[in-house]
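Methods: holo model generation. Sequences were used as deposited, without trimming of termini or removal of tags, and paired with ligand SMILES retrieved from the corresponding compound records. Each pair was processed once, and we did not select among multiple samples. The sequence and pyridoxal-5'-phosphate SMILES for this entry were:
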Amino acid sequence: MGGFKKNPSTIVDLLQHRQIKGSLRSLITSYPSIDFSSNDYLGFSSKGLLAEELKTMNASVQVGSTGSRLISGNSLLFQEIENSVAKFHETEGALIFNSGYDANLGLLSSVPQKGDLILSDELIHASLIDGIRLSFATHYKFRHNDINSLKELISRHRDSFNEVYVVVESVYSMDGDHAPLIELASICRDGKVHLIVDEAHAIGVFGKEGRGLCQELNIHDDCFARIYTYGKAMGCHGATIVGSEELKNYLINFSRSFIYTTAMPEHSLLAIKAAYQLLIKTPEIKKLKANIHYFTSIIDSSLDFIESRSAIHCKLIPGNREVQQLEEKCATEDVFIKSIKSPTVKEGKERLRICLHSFNTEQEMGFLFKLLN
Ligand SMILES: Cc1ncc(COP(=O)(O)O)c(C=O)c1O
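and the model returned the structure below.
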């Protein structure tokens, strides 16, 4: 067929548009060695701690899982881990998904129904947004961490919908700040609204033995569902939704990202088990806390950082090109920091996202501070 191009012109045009805007994404395979970028907050993955713990288990594993959980992929190991995860997070039921993305997609696309309302913080993660997009419920956003904005939406709409869900992250992935969980729990209780909290960046960092922020603040019983992902501080992969036994049974029956996918293989399950075993005895959480404390004590208010008590610290540098230049400057000094550009964040809100780890040294943090100055 003369003149027919294999690639639709839209994909070529959109890539070009990204190039012009300075927001073209690409994959890299080698990284500067001073890590202020990975989500491996406790070094479980990069420092081999999880691998060491796994060795102590001395397990020989089947490599593939052979089918979805509802066909041939389920096992006693799933059952054992889910029971102990539910106990660790002080709830009735826990259900493992292949990733945090799958968990959020499966939860939000299946639970809220037509006639229900979802109210989400405007900065929730893409995986939660995609789940909401697949749901038939109505969706409104409230201003980031703004309790009054949420209250106003609840009072305006509560009576027009059947069930109402509020969706937040305990620690925001691109800002590092906290949701006002105590106030949120109280508003949701009073308004008979169901609270959903994504704890991706709080597990391993907050709470006794890294149980997360909901348990640290003792509001876990107020949550309808909590999501714990394992690709960050836990150093492995996968995620669990915890909540009531009914929620677990519901997800097994209706959550498409749980039902229609091959089950997680045994080696990944054992890594999750090992990560929880490590959490309760590791000194890394304390070291991470000390580093967060040290870093926040040295950064200057003139540096325009978003306020944070978590492992994520963001310095606003408006403009894709400007923030990219600083990322490159850091890389030439062997410092690994990622710039977060629009459209991942709003235009004008581009930033350097600094992830602190238990293994970062004071010298490294001091050096970073000098670079940013
Ligand atoms: C807040 C939040 N939720 C969910 C996810 C997705 O988790 P996973 O990487 O396991 O798919 C991420 C990861 O980027 C995240 O930051």
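The radius of gyration is 21 Å.
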